[in-house]
Amino acid sequence: MAASGSGGSRADNGYGSQQPRRRKGPGALATAYLVIYNVVMTAGWLVIAVGLVRAYLAKGSYHSLYYSIEKPLKFFQTGALLEVGLLLITKYLPGIVPSSVVLTAFQVMSRVFLTWAVTHSVKEVQTEDSVLLFVVAWTITEIIRYSFYTFSLLNHLPYLIKWARYTLFIVLYPMGVSGELLTIYAALPFVRQSGLYSISLPNKYNFSFDYYTFLILVMISYIPIFPQLYFHMLHQRRKVLSHTEEHKKSE
Known about the structure:
Strand content: under 5%
Mean pLDDT: 85
Strand order of the largest sheet: 1-2
Largest sheet: 2 strands, antiparallel
Order of helices and strands: EEHHHHHHHH
Low-confidence stretches: 1-23
Number of helices: 8
Radius of gyration: 21 Å
């Protein structure tokens, strides 16, 4: 979501060679809306982080901390659904470079799915340590990410936040994915036993659905998709940080 300008050389756009127009930044209203959204999301994940720390200090244990942040986690993680819509909007706003819609959509939808369809729906897994694993990873990641977007929109991005955005994911992404997969795996026996969300034949719609099998397919889907997301971020890290270092040297 950082602002970008166009080059100064002539280019053939298919209608003849001409000087490309300089891209203008997003309008004041669009910028204000995006800044407010990202500030609110940053604040929300900070609330979750503080809640985790306070619960840990009060209990003296990291076990079952999920209950201390359950409500804000559900609210702000579900609020991330707006981000997919915002990406589609900002894709057509001049001056804004959006993230990958497909990769972001998968990341957001998988987290919302895990929040509601797994952790909320299968109460037995809420005490699993794997839940804390992905909650901590999500919390740190989102505080950094939404701060990054906020400062980028304000054209005042501190290098520390940029560095954290394109570096800490190296540990946080595998940590979060491990927690997500372990939580789904822990939910499988309870889903199978209860028949949660499953539809069996015969019925008037002549349709069956096995939620247990669906969860296994969800776990398998991580195999092709997670590496794409991870290597996309590695590529972005090399591109962004190397460009920053070159810019520093030229000054």
